[in-house]
Write a structure and sequence with these properties.
It is a single chain. The protein is an alpha/beta fold. It has two domains: 236 residues, Peroxisomal Thiolase, Chain A, domain 1; 151 residues, Peroxisomal Thiolase, Chain A, domain 1, CATH 3.40.47.10. Helices cover 32% and strands 18% of the residues. It contains twelve helices and 14 strands. The protein has a ten-stranded mixed β-sheet with strand order 5-4-6-7-1-8-14-13-9-10, sandwiched between helices. The protein has a two-stranded antiparallel sheet with strand order 2-3. It is globular. It starts with a strand and ends in a 9-residue tail after the last strand.
């Protein structure tokens, strides 16, 4: 019989909330997190807005020395991890930390700090601190979390751009199922930086107004940042310590389009394949899926490809499934997108509310499904999937289920 994997804790930092309760309240109210960029000087760019994290009292979380050494990405990851760790009651329970691992997804990582270092060097601003280079490695946040809590189990960092966090959650699930860990800290953290912002801007993939997934007027994404961390735990281990169980992760799919470095396969074949793979792995029939957290970047071709892939899997029933595009609120958080959206998917199941896709006003005949426009809806959700698709055709789909003590068949 396969080991069952449950979610026992979560933490989040985002443009719409810096804790799980604040984040969830903003999502169901349809709050837009886009604002003027302050993380770097955006005056040279045509677009100067992003879904930037704000309102964090960093001095409440870190010492002055830590703030000099930690990148923005590291700060977000550690804050979200601490919330997840506490909510899982792992700060209170005695556990074997040799059986606890960390596997995060990463995108830009600490590049913002590296940019500051080299800008200071080139402008001759004294001697910039070498500590700004510590976070050059995408694995830094992963390592810092493990070191802070003394976690000696499996440790790795996944970098598949915008699907990184979802891929990391899938691999963490595998490690628990294989018996290599009892608990895995997974998800991801990412922050704004100029190299990512300028790259998406040069590709003309950033909407100058607002992120409008699946709307005919969409012009592209809004860059976001933040962290979403989940505690994955083997069910028996969670029950023995009477941990809170938020939902169950029952399977995932991962595949590649092998089509283009930036464009998705246009007919949704890769989307279809990864969803079918995830449902098969989870032993769930398409008719059992109650809601979908869409990748929903609001770029012209991605939204069409995702819609086509969903229709290929679910047929006519696709029109009845509430689809949530929360990037309309939190922006596209790149390496941390899948982690933050996994948190939202678990909360959707736990609270029986599907968050909206905001800024949806003009239907697109090519995107003709039910995208939960502008207002959240109440719905009993037993099974939910969360999609993540990335440059290069890196596709991941996670399947979550409302927790029941009844065992699934082996």
């Amino acid at each position: 019989m396969r080991k069952r994997v449950v979610i026992t804790g979560m933490g989040v930092v985002s443009a719409v909330g810096n804790s799980v309760p604040e984040f969830w309240d903003s999502l169901i109210q349809g709050k837009d997190g886009a604002k003027e960029i302050t993380a770097f000087d955006a005056s040279a760019y045509r677009i100067k807005r992003a879904a930037e994290v704000s309102g964090l009292d960093l001095s409440a979380h870190f010492t002055a020395r830590e703030l000099r050494r930690l990148s923005r990405c590291d700060q977000f990851g550690l804050i979200a991890f601490r919330e997840a760790w506490r909510s899982a009651r792992l700060d209170q329970d005695s556990i074997d930390k040799r059986r606890v691992g960390v596997l995060l997804g990463a995108g830009s990582g600490g590049i913002l700090s590296v940019e500051k270092y080299f800008r200071d060097v080139y402008l001759g601003k004294g001697r910039p601190s070498p500590s700004l280079l510590i976070s050059y490695s995408l694995a830094t946040t992963t390592d810092l979390i493990a070191i802070e809590s003394g976690l000696k189990g499996p440790r790795s960092t996944t970098a598949t751009v915008c699907s990184s966090s979802s891929a990391s959650i899938g691999v963490a699930f595998d490690l628990i199922q294989m018996g290599l860990a009892d608990i895995m800290v997974s998800g991801g953290s990412d922050s704004l930086c100029e190299v990512s912002f300028s790259g998406f801007s040069s590709l003309k993939l950033v909407d100058p107004e607002s992120c409008k997934p699946f709307d005919k007027r969409r012009q592209g994404l809004t860059i976001g940042e933040g962290a979403g961390i989940l505690i994955l735990e083997e069910l028996g281990h969670a029950l023995r310590r009477e941990a809170p169980i938020l939902s169950e992760l029952i399977g995932y799919g991962i595949c590649a389009d092998a089509y283009h470095l930036t464009a998705p396969e246009p007919n949704g074949e890769g989307v279809e394949r990864v969803i079918r793979m995830a449902l098969s792995h989870a032993r769930v029939f398409p008719e059992e899926v109650d809601t979908i957290n869409a990748h929903g970047t609001a770029t012209l071709f991605n939204d069409i490809a995702e819609t086509r892939g969903i229709k290929r899997v679910f047929g006519e029933r696709a029109r009845e499934i509430p689809i949530s595009g929360i990037k309309s609120m939190i922006g596209h958080c790149l390496g941390s997108a899948g982690g933050i959206e996994a948190v939202a998917t678990v909360l959707t199941i736990k609270n029986g509310i599907v968050p909206p896709t905001i800024h949806y006003e003009v239907p697109d005949p090519h995107c003709d499904l039910y995208y939960t426009p502008n207002h959240s809806i109440k719905k009993d959700v037993r099974v939910a999937i969360s999609n993540s698709f990335a440059f290069g055709g890196n596709n991941v789909c996670l399947v979550f289920k409302k927790f029941s003590s009844e065992s699934r068949s082996s």
